[in-house]
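Page 42, continued from yesterday. The earlier attempt failed because a stray header line got pasted into the input along with the sequence. Redoing it now with the clean sequence only.
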Amino acid sequence: MSHPVLFHVGYHKTATTWMQKRLFTERNGFQQVADHGDVFNRIVRPHGLHFDPGPMRDFLAERCREMPEGLAPVVSSEILSGHPFYAGQDSDVHAERIKAIAPNARILISIRNQMRILPSIYMQYLLRGGTMPPRTFFAGVEEPGYFGFDPLHFEYDRLVSRYQELFGAKNVLVVTQEALKADMNAVSRQIAGFAGNVQFERLSEEDRSVQSPSYPEYAVPVLRRINHVQYGVLNPVPIISLGRTPYGLYKIAGYLLRLQVTKRALSRYRPLSEHVRKTFAGRYAESNRRLDAYTAHNLDLSAYDL
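This time it went through. C-alpha cells are written below.
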C-alpha cells in the first residue's frame, strides 16, 4: 500500500461523528477509504477462525489508488475500539487485525474525561433502545459467558499501549475531546500533520458545527420508559410496540425535553452524572497517570483524574 492509512479507532462518544462528517473530508485534505460497513464486515465481524486480512488489504489498496493526488487516506470507525455496552471485548483483537491489514498504518485514538464519557455512553445506550436504569447498566454482568459494561474498557492506557507495541509509539496519536473543544483548529492541524496531510489549513465555520449531540440527562427517566414500549436494537421484542427508538415517541419526548422552558426547569437535575461521580470517582486516576507518562505526543490531561 503506497500511502500510510490513518486508522481512527475511537473511542465512542469522543466527537467521532464530527470527525467523520466534518474533518475527514476532501476539502480538508482527507479521503475516507472505508466506512463503518466496510470495517465491520472485513475487520470486526469475521470469526477468528475465518478472518483473513487479504480482502481488506486489497480493498484499501484499491481505494487508495483511486484517491485524488495529495489526499491523506483515513479509516474512521469507533467500533474498532470495542463496544462499550459489552465490555469493549476484542478491542485488542481489532488492533492485531489492523496490523495484519496495514502494518505501516498510523493510529489515532480519541479519548474523553471518564466522568463525562460514561454518562454519554449511557445516553447512547438509551438511543439504541436500552431499558436498564443507570445503576443496573453500570453494574455490568456477573453471569459467566455474558458481557456487559466494564469500567476497565475506559482505562485508556491499556489500548493505547497495545497499539504502541504493534505500531510504535511515534505512530500512535492520542487526542482528547477537551482539547478539541478548546481549540478545534489546533487539534485538527495536529491530526493532519500526523496523517501526512499537507493540504489542511483551517476549519471552515461549517466544519465547526457540532454533530449528534446527546439528549440531556434529565430526560433519562422518560426516555428509558418509552423504550419499554418501542422496538429498538437492544429491545427487539417489547411487550407492545408503539414505534421504533430513536424515533416515534422517543423523538417526540426528546424534542419536548430540549425546549428552553424544560431546560430552565430541569437543567440542574443530573442524576446520571451524580451516579457516575459517586461510583467511579478516582477509579481512573492510575490509568490516566500511566497514559500521561508514556504518550509520545503532547497530551494535556489536566482535566482528568490524576
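Notes: The CA atoms of residues 205 and 223 lie 33 Å apart.
Reminder to self: strip header lines before submitting.
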